[in-house]
Amino acid sequence: SDVGAGAAATAAAVRNIPADFDVEGFLRQAKLNFVRLQAANDRGDMDDIREFTSPEMFAEAQLQIMERGNTEQTTEITQLNATVLNIVTEGTHDIGSVRFTGQSKCSDQVMAEPFSEVWHFTKWSNHPDQWSLAGIQQD
User: Fold this and answer.
1) Can you tell me the mean pLDDT for 33-40?
2) Cβ partners under 8 Å of residue 39, min gap 6
3) What span, in angstroms and rounded, lies between the C-alpha atoms of 94 and 80?
């Protein structure tokens, strides 16, 4: 038997990504959303954040921005890596999880600091290109 093929199939199953899934396209969009959220958050731009987040995620972002008040904030992403962890379908929703690692520097920091977060994106099966950010967990 071909051991290599079995091992490859097992690895694919662990990552749970459909064979026909556009990983590169999804990661490109995910990275854009990562940078976009940081920028919109810095500006306190709730209209932009609403465009690509789930209602729950939007409410959470709104709360954080309100708590911050008028404090100026700038976040510079000095390094950004992204890996798709899995893509699963639950009923009429697809859920895609991406691990982001890299370094970022806030306006009040001297040095860039490493970060590691898992972002969960969701979309309706009948809207193939409209992914919304549904959750963020610190890794």
Assistant:
1) 95
2) 45, 75
3) 24
